[in-house]
Write a structure and sequence with these properties.
641 residues, seven-stranded antiparallel sheet, 15 helices
């Protein structure tokens, strides 16, 4: 049971976030035209996992949206008797969806993985790399081990409680994962017959709901009994919250993670896989959370599959709150396994993913999600230009600090400044930024200045979408924002709503630059001198107990959000792995921020951390089944105590 719950926790961690309600509010505030511009399904200039020139050799299952006839009004004396779908109640111009605040998984969590073919490798062997970006803790999320049984011999990392290696290799194949970032959660507005919530309106008739009593044991307190109402979509979580109006609380959540599945079988078979066919057979059991499985083998094959059980949708379905009274809004089934995005041995000589769109708009199935636009393009640019690739090259690429967002927008932003109006401290900031090479190295000050400046511009630009933890609302992502600032300087959105005049982009950037200088001076007064990126970013390994004395902070590591070396304040590369296969021999390297012991008093508690921060690796000693491990290589149990 605990192992099953662990895998469901992974599903929550990696798919337990959606913007349906936030986007619904944004649409109400912006109107259809502006909303479509700021929240497109496919942004210009993306670089998907499956190259745009590949095409698709299958015919998609038809997904036409065929609306039902206008539903007749339900026969009820309940206060809500509207026959049309009203998102926000009777006065939709004044009322947005308000919900109790609930914490969702960090949207910045992600990962990188890639594999290069022998044709691009210096030793004519396939190389596979993976670094999952998750929360940084002590003890580490991962535990490194070689698992040798009569049936298999495999090396990598596992999660405590998981049966088998999750990311790793054997002598035949290697594999790694990144989050697919696909939307597998939809919200439906429900119209109940009355306050008993025993029936709800669906396809012009009343449909019975069900009840489930949840028993919540509270440490040092009374046990709480909570009755949860379920529709056929899923639970109705906000029924008993006083913050939410009766009109808005009746929302039901449909989520793929609620459906039974057995992802453990995928890892069981991957541990034993010997070739590409075995790999494909293994991942078919994997349903949620959707992942990009990268693959390489000893014979030189490379591949990537975006695998999960993804709903078949009509265009736009699930992007916004849906009317739960209509069956044509429900999921129509799941995309067949063979139709999931994948590619094997592409001509360009590499496969890769970094949480970006899996496909371009020509893919015949509609999907939504929360995707990345910088790490993936930097990765593909580098891989496309590299030849005679070595393991050392891959180490440098995993630890790459180049800030593509800054490179694509910063100089344009600086050009909007009137430097004659800058104060001496602001001129110094301008000088530092102008000389910056866009690398977020830990000892530099420029990344700190740019990060604060970009945040100030972002907040000033999108103040018409105010932040309120009880009103779900989403702002355009950094990629859309950068495109608008660089290519549309006269856009209607270049304005600060809370001022009477219409700001130009020059005024907006000038104001943001001054705010950046003031903000950094306040930060320095509170935190001591030194604005280096490592000090400002403060990458921290928190102990699971959250006791500060058992954690580590201000690690000297660069990178950051949107950068291949994705080390941020409390999340980042939780395991870096590089594997080269061929000739029945494996050469592998890996590192994670922690140690093999969970005991804070052990010398093996955090002994990898400094090497990890410095971009160094451990050679992984993968012993063959018939080898005897030398005594010098063995650390006895006492050493971990």
């Amino acid at each position: 049971l605990k192992t099953a719950l662990l895998l469901k926790y992974m599903a929550d961690d990696l798919t337990g976030r959606d913007d349906d309600l936030a986007l619904t509010n944004a649409l109400a505030l912006l109107g259809e035209n502006d909303f479509a511009q700021l929240f497109p399904d496919f942004a210009k200039g993306q670089d998907p996992i499956v190259p745009s020139d590949q095409g698709y050799d299958f015919k998609a299952i038809a997904t036409p949206h065929k609306p039902l006839p206008t539903p007749s009004a339900p026969k009820t004396t309940a206060p809500d008797t509207s026959s049309t779908f009203d998102l926000f109640g009777k006065d939709s111009t004044l009322s947005l969806l308000r919900l109790p605040y609930y914490e969702q998984p960090d949207p910045n969590w992600g990962s990188n993985n890639w594999a290069v073919s022998p044709s691009k490798s210096a030793l004519n062997k396939a190389i596979l790399c993976n670094d999952p970006h998750l929360g940084l803790n002590l003890p580490s999320l991962w535990f490194e081990l070689q698992l040798s049984t009569p049936e298999s011999n495999v090396y990598g990392v596992s999660l405590p409680g998981a049966p088998g290696i999750i990311i790793g290799f054997n002598k035949h194949i290697a594999w790694g994962v990144t989050n697919a970032s696909r939307d597998v959660r939809d919200w439906f507005k429900i119209q109940f017959k009355d306050t008993t919530h025993r029936q709800y309106w669906y396809d012009n008739q009343w449909k019975n709901s069900s009840q489930r009593i949840e028993t919540i044991e509270v440490r040092n307190g009374a046990t709480v009994m909570d009755t949860v109402i379920y529709t056929h979509y899923g639970p109705v979580p906000f029924l008993n919250d006083s913050l939410v109006s009766e009109q808005q609380k009746n929302l039901s959540l449909k989520w793929k993670a609620f459906v039974g599945s057995n992802e453990a079988l995928t890892f069981y078979y991957l541990n034993r896989a010997k070739n590409y066919d075995d790999f494909v057979a293994a991942i078919q059991y994997y349903e949620c959370p959707g992942q990009n499985f990268v693959y390489a083998d000893a014979t030189g094959n490379i591949a990537i599959w975006q695998q999960g059980k993804f709903p078949i949708r009509w265009k736009g379905q699930g992007k916004l709150l849906l009317d739960g009274s209509r069956s044509d809004n429900d999921w129509e089934g799941y995309i067949p396994f063979a139709h999931n995005p994948h590619i094997k041995n592409p001509e360009r000589g590499f496969v890769s993913s970094a949480n970006q769109h899996p496909t371009d708009s020509l893919y015949p199935y509609y999907y939504g999600g929360i995707f990345e636009f910088y790490r993936n393009r930097r990765l593909n640019q580098q891989l496309a230009n590299m030849q005679d690739i070595t393991i050392e090259d891959m180490k440098h690429l995993q630890c790459d600090n180049y800030n593509l967002q800054a490179a694509e927008g910063m100089h344009t932003l600086l050009s909007y400044l009137d430097t004659t109006q800058l104060k001496p401290n602001e001129l110094e900031m301008y000088r530092i930024l102008s000389a910056w090479d866009f690398n977020n190295h830990p000892q530099l000050i420029a990344p700190t200045i740019y990060t604060v400046l970009a945040d100030k511009i972002y907040d000033n630009l999108w103040d018409e979408l105010p932040e309120d933890k009880n009103t779900p609302l989403v702002r355009p992502n950094a990629y859309i924002t950068n495109q608008l600032l660089v290519t549309q300087p006269k856009s209607k959105f270049i304005d600060i709503k809370n001022t009477p005049e219409k700001e130009t982009i020059q005024l907006l950037v000038q104001l943001s630059f001054r705010q950046t200088a003031d903000s950094l001076e306040r930060w320095e007064a509170a935190n001591g001198t030194g604005r280096t990126w490592a000090k400002f970013k403060n990458t921290t390994l928190r102990h699971l107990s959250r006791l500060p004395a058992l954690g580590l902070n201000e690690l000297p590591i660069g990178g950051g959000k949107g950068i291949l070396n994705a080390a941020s304040t409390n999340w980042g590369p939780s395991w870096r792995m590089i594997v080269m296969l061929g000739d029945d021999k494996v050469e592998a390297f890996g590192i994670y921020p922690g140690g093999q012991s969970g005991n804070p008093g052990s010398r093996y508690y955090a002994n990898f951390v400094d090497k990890w921060a410095a971009g160094e690796y451990n050679r992984l000693s993968f012993w063959a089944e018939d080898q005897t491990i030398p005594q010098s290589e063995i650390l006895w149990v006492q050493d971990f105590e």
